[in-house]
Amino acid sequence: MADSLVCVGQIAGSFGVRGDVRLKSFCAQPEAIAAYAPLVTDDGRTFDVTLNGAIKNGFSARLSGVAKKEEGDALKGVRLYAPRERLPDPDDDEFYHADLIGLDVVDTGGTIVGKVKAVIEQGAGDLLEIAANGQTEPVLLPFTQAFVPTVDLAGGRLVIDPPEGIFS
After folding, report:
1. For residue 57, which phi and psi values (nearest 5 degrees)?
2. Is the Cα torsion angle 99, 3, 10, 36 positive or negative in sign?
3. Domain boundary among 86, 114, 137
4. Residue that terminates a domain, selected from 63, 86, 109
5. Bridging pattern class, strands 104-107 and 112-122
6. Coil, strand or helix: which one is 154?
7. Which of 19, 107, 108, 152 is in the most buried spot, having the most CB atoms within 10 Å?
8. What is the bridge-based pairing of β-strands 157-160 and 104-107?
9. What is the DSSP track for 8-23?
10. Domain holding 42: CATH number?
11. Cα separation of 36 and 120, whole Å?
12. For the segment 29-81, what is each residue's pLDDT rounded down to a tens digit?
């Protein structure tokens, strides 16, 4: 996936029998996902998006070219991306998850302890999944000011102040 694309949502399956889909939005303002269309998939397909209404955990939506329930079912799990230039610039101390993935993770002493593998959204806040040097299992760290005092996108790193023993 090109660096200029940001994941803004995911199709969760069909909704009804006329080709509508369940759409999960990853946008700060969830309904804004339709404004970033046409959206592109990992395999290069593009979809215009029309939101029909809010449903549990997302929206009922119509995607261009999807007219049958079976077509909607076949799209379950497909991630949708928007070109970065269509998205608003994040506010200070806000970051697109795509910008954090791959950054070096450095402790307050300057030692590289790993790389950001993923950002996991939780109800209480985001978690960083860190591929830690010398460890087989990833480390999960809350993405809060207390644990991640510095995000240096230009320098390609996060400075962390983890709890004692988490990287041992």
Report:
1. 65, 25
2. positive
3. 86
4. 86
5. antiparallel
6. coil
7. 19
8. parallel
9. EEEEEEE-SSSS-EEE
10. 2.40.30.60
11. 23
12. 899 999 999 999 999 999 999 999 999 989 999 999 999 999 999 999 999 99
